[in-house]
């Protein structure tokens, strides 16, 4: 009998040990994400200060060329000065080139700030010298240190003038391709929620507070464990890619939560000029107390995924003491489409950046498959990659006009073009019959 009991308890012990080992293994695999929030320049530092006050969990650094500005940082934010040899610690005075040079001079030290982190969130208010100039160097450093990067950028108020706006747009063009994802917040949008007569300092502070609330849920999701946990692998899946427009927002409501109201708020952040439409990857995390209902989870999930049924959706649930009788949705969507701006406004920096990235592609095109009556043996070789100069801009412009010309004129123009082409062709090493076929295909003859 005693022998039997001993055997049973050993078996139980073994089972408990096995379970413990499995738990430890899964916890290790599902490790939380190491996040560092880096504010760049005066505005970036102030925003990070505000986030640190609200969030408190992540790791916060504010980097600047201005010694004076660093003195106002809260204790929870680590100050970091760079480029003193160029700026004497006095800031960059709206000189973005100086901001960039200062950051390049201190790049090795800046890189150390990003090393060992999983995600670096770069925050800058564009329109000055330091934030606009140094952000691209910080993004480069983080990339080299193999961190995932998310940029949060504010654009100047329109009353601050054209010069600041231009500085901001130029900076964005440069930074966007260096980041995994980015968020753009025009400061101006704060007037959707506050009075236009609000003093400037209070208006900045209102943007910063809103932004901190927006980020709170995201940082919590990344750095706190949950019942259904969002781990680093999820964050990686979400952020991977280059220069993708992101939407993040978190909203909490007290009491008997009206799920639809909460959803409406989380999907309509007044700070943004865009929503989650078009996003192809989404992550949301629900935080509440243990009374959270399955129906709530299902409704929220259905609503969010209805924006794009093909989107990849990651979700998590966590319980926190301070969310008693409260529910918060933290939403993060990637690959959003920026809305068209007003006609009299400047073209969107996002589109400018995309254009720039696109134009950087090497002008190498694969020769299209050729359909001719020639015997096949001529085309049995592997397709050869040839450098074909893009069509001259003049020729492109002619196209719509051509449609309006008479048939005779069109024929004449075609003959002339053919002659020109044959002339140019002598310089290229592509046989004429191939080029003609290609032209015909392109022009729909
Ligand atoms: N949202 C927000 N925007 C700010 C804040 N402070 C400044 N800005 C905006 O940021 C732009 C750039 O200002 P700063 O961040 O002070 O400039 P900087 O990057 O420090 O550059 P320099 O001072 O020229 O070296 C301004 O035009 C404002 O629009 C802030 O606390 N919050
Ligand atoms: Mg400054």
Q: Which descriptor suits the 3D outline?
A: globular
Cα end-to-end separation:
95 Å
Order of helices and strands: HEHEHEHHHEHEHEHHEHEHEEHEEHHH
Strands, count = 12
Distinct small molecules bound, one entry per kind: guanosine-5'-triphosphate, magnesium ion
Provide mean pLDDT, rounded.
Answer: 78
Task: Please give the largest β-sheet.
Answer: 10 strands, mixed
How many domain regions? 2
CATH architecture of the largest domain: 3-Layer(aba) Sandwich
- The CATH topology of the largest domain is Rossmann fold
Unreliable residue stretches: 341-347, 352-407, 425-445
Rg = 28 Å
Helix/sheet category = alpha/beta
Question: Could you give a quick summary of the protein structure above?
Answer:
This protein is of the alpha/beta class and 445 residues long. The protein is built from 16 helices and twelve strands.
């Amino acid at each position: 009998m005693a022998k039997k009991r001993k055997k049973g308890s050993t078996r139980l012990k073994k089972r408990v040990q096995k379970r413990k080992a499995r738990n430890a293994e899964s916890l290790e695999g599902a490790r939380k994400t190491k996040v560092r929030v880096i504010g760049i320049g005066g505005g970036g530092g102030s925003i990070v200060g505000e986030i640190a006050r609200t969030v408190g969990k992540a790791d916060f650094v504010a980097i600047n060329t201005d010694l004076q500005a660093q003195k106002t940082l809260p204790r929870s934010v680590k100050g970091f000065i760079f480029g003193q040899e160029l700026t004497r610690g006095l800031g960059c005075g709206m000189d973005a080139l100086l901001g960039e040079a200062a950051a390049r001079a201190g790049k090795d030290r800046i890189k150390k700030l990003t090393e060992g982190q999983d995600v670096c969130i770069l925050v800058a208010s564009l329109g000055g010298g330091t934030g606009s100039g140094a952000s691209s160097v910080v993004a480069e450093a983080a990339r080299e240190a193999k961190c995932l990067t998310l940029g949060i950028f504010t654009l100047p108020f329109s009353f601050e003038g054209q010069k600041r706006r231009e500085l901001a747009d130029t900076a964005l063009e440069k930074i966007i391709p260096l980041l995994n994802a980015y968020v753009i917040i025009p400061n101006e949008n704060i007037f959707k929620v506050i009075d236009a007569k609000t003093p400037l300092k209070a208006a900045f502070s209102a943007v910063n507070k809103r932004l901190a609330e927006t980020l709170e849920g995201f940082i919590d999701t990344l750095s706190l464990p949950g019942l259904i946990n969002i781990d680093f692998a999820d964050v990686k899946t979400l952020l991977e890619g280059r220069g993708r427009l992101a939407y993040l927002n978190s909203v909490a409501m007290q009491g008997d939560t009206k799920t639809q109201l909460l959803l409406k708020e989380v999907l309509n952040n007044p700070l943004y000029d865009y929503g989650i439409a078009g996003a192809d990857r989404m992550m949301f995390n629900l935080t509440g107390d243990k009374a959270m209902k399955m129906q709530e989870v299902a409704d929220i999930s259905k609503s969010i995924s209805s924006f794009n049924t093909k989107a990849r959706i990651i979700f998590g649930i966590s319980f926190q003491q301070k969310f008693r009788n409260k529910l918060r949705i933290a939403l993060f969507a990637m690959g959003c489409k920026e809305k068209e701006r007003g006609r009299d406004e400047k073209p969107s920096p996002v589109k400018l950046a995309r254009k720039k990235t696109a134009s950087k592609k090497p002008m190498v095109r694969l020769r299209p498959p050729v359909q001719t009556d020639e015997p096949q043996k001529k085309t049995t070789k592997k397709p050869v990659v040839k450098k074909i100069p893009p069509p001259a801009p003049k020729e492109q412009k002619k196209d719509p006009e051509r449609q309006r010309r008479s048939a005779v004129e069109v024929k004449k123009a075609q003959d002339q073009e053919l002659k020109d082409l044959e002339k140019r062709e002598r310089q290229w090493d592509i046989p004429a019959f191939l080029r003609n076929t290609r032209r015909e295909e392109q022009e729909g003859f």
